[in-house]
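Hi all, posting the design record for the shared folder.

TITLE: backbone redesign
STEP: 1 of 1
STRUCTURE INPUT:
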């Protein structure tokens, strides 16, 4: 794809924008269109009513954000996943020799643009605080660091971050799992490189995870933890789901014999998509 995905500072950055829309295919097509060749992946989840856009550089996130704010309305949104806004989470991630300082520079520039151009308040996370801190304290103990002091009428607020690479990963429990067992399993798995939420999706419960050190604690280890804890409750898992992309290096640490079971493949790596591009299929 060349130099169009290198920001002005010369840093190579990825942006993983979480948009509060996962059902309206016509709207999703419009959001995809403005990303153009900077789009690496879209993971659409109708139950969460949420889509994860994996993007290159810093221009595509702005185009996507402007379009989403124009098209979407938070007051009509219904979905399993917690959210503060129609463009809910916008983290910038350093790649290929770039640093977290590079990501912080672009995070701050993006938040200033959003708050001045679109009048949407932004909560910042990274070295100062975590995304879970914002989820817990927004509008009570914590006020926006950029923009208005009240939510945008239709767009709400944004969580804009700078973070290291992570893997978003879901493990679905079998249909017999109860609310209490799902929350107990999620609590038991949480920690040591894994953040968890227990979410009810249709008639099943899901352990939704962020693997914040995926080259140490990858999908195989995280899934095995859920399996072990589920069996303590006489439950099994029904399937695993990669949300977005994984690095080739993290994938290489996992036995290829388990890739299908864990919803992994070379075609789902950041490196493969950088080289071959991506086409969204509605």
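Okay, here is what came back for every position:
SEQUENCE:
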């Amino acid at each position: 794809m060349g130099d169009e995905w290198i920001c002005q500072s010369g840093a190579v950055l990825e942006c993983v924008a979480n948009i509060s829309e996962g059902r309206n295919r016509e709207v999703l097509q419009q959001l995809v269109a403005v990303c153009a060749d900077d789009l690496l992946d879209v993971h659409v989840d109708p139950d969460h009513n949420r889509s994860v856009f994996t993007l290159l550089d810093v221009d595509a996130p702005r185009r996507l954000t402007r379009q989403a704010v124009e098209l979407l309305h938070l007051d009509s949104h219904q979905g399993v996943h917690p959210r503060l806004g129609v463009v809910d989470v916008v983290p910038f991630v350093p790649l290929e020799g770039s640093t977290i300082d590079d990501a912080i520079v672009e995070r701050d520039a993006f938040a200033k643009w959003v708050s001045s151009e679109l009048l949407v308040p932004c909560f910042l996370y990274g070295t100062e605080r975590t995304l879970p801190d914002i989820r817990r304290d927004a509008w009570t103990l914590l006020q926006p660091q950029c923009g208005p002091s009240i939510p945008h009428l239709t767009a709400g607020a944004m969580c804009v971050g700078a973070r290291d690479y992570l893997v978003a990963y879901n493990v679905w429990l079998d249909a017999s799992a109860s609310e209490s067992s799902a929350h107990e399993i999620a609590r038991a798995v949480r920690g040591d490189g894994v953040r968890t939420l227990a979410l009810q999706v249709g008639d099943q419960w899901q352990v939704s995870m962020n693997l914040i050190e995926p080259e140490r604690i990858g999908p195989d280890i995280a899934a095995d933890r859920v399996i072990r804890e589920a069996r303590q409750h006489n439950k099994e898992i029904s399937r695993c789901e990669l949300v977005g992309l994984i690095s080739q290096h993290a994938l290489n640490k996992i036995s290829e014999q388990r890739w299908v079971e864990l919803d992994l493949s070379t075609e789902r790596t950041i490196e493969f998509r950088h080289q071959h591009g991506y086409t969204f299929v509605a």
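COMMENT: Helices lie at 25-35, 59-71, 100-118, 131-137, 179-189, 219-232, 248-252, 270-276.
Let me know if anyone wants the other runs.
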